[in-house]
Amino acid sequence: MSSKLVDSVQLNLPSPVQQLSSRLLEEKQIKLFVKRDDLIHPHLSGNKWRKLKYNLLEARKKNKNTLLTFGGAYSNHIHATAAAGKLFGFNTIGIIRGELHEPLNPTLSFAKEQGMHIEYMDRQTYRTKNNPELLNILKEKFGDFYSIPEGGSNQLALPGVAEVIAELNGQLVTKYDYVCTACGSGGTLAGLISAAAQQKMLGFAVLKGADFLNEDVKNLLPPESNNNWQIMLDYHFGGYAKKSQELMLFCQEFEDVFEIPVEPIYTGKMFYGLCDLVKKDYFPKGSTIAAIHTGGLQGKYTSGV
């Protein structure tokens, strides 16, 4: 069942690894590799595929034909769930935080084109999205469905993300000391932690005041999990989807120099923070870093990069 579902769509797995070279990295004696999960699929890529994979298998196992999930108007997860529904034959429902704004932005336009039914929910009600009573109300309205949480971060997300580490172990001929990822809801970081052995995991929070993510990540992990991880809280640039001219210029320069597209909502902030930590000698000389490109490139088209 597993291989049949996954093999029904052409996915670029394992995703390639690209080594970066720059004067800064040479000066600090740092090796930096980028795991190009953005290249897994044009519409279903990055950590969103990783987190959805085993949820899709579970939905199929339970004979659920409809996926229902939650997200903001610019959500990478909404974008990916809509694409997954079209690719794997599920109906999809997206519960969107806030009110309808027309014309639809590129994320919601794409979701609608993929066949997703979009339902708007006021922010006060949306805060109760994890309440079983709300799910019962939604089932009365939409019928039976398989529910996936906001961001796709649940227990079934972890084994999909853990496959990144297995792939890296087979792709990198030298040992690596750090793994870096953007951190929104904590599921990707938790999945990486669950599979890591010696490496230190660094999550770069894209939300302002995201200290709560430390608890969220712990809640996703078993008690005996590796505690060799840290969430960097200083590279949010004002909060989710907030940006500055400095960040925008960094994203453009990063793409020009390394020919790797990034956006300012997730990956741009992570790479900015990573480069800043290299400059500040956070990483000891001789360190090898693997940075996960978590996709989300539709953010380029909603942010002017």
Task: Describe the structure concisely.
The protein has 305 residues and is α/β, with parallel strands linked by helices.
Global structural class: alpha/beta
Q: Write down the overall mean pLDDT.
A: 94
Assign the CATH class of the largest domain: Alpha Beta
Helix content: 40-55%
Please summarize the sheet with the most strands: 6 strands, mixed
Task: Kindly report how far apart the N and C termini lie.
Answer: 40 Å
Low-confidence parts lasting 5 or more residues at pLDDT below 50?
A: none
Order of helices and strands: HEHEHEHEHEHHEHEHEHEHHE
Beta-strand share of residues: 15-25%
* Helical segment count: 12
Cα-atom radius of gyration: 19 Å
CATH topology of the largest domain, by name, is: Rossmann fold
CATH architecture of the largest domain: 3-Layer(aba) Sandwich
Strand order of the largest sheet: 1-2-10-7-8-9
Overall spatial form: globular
Number of strands: 10
Number of domains: 2
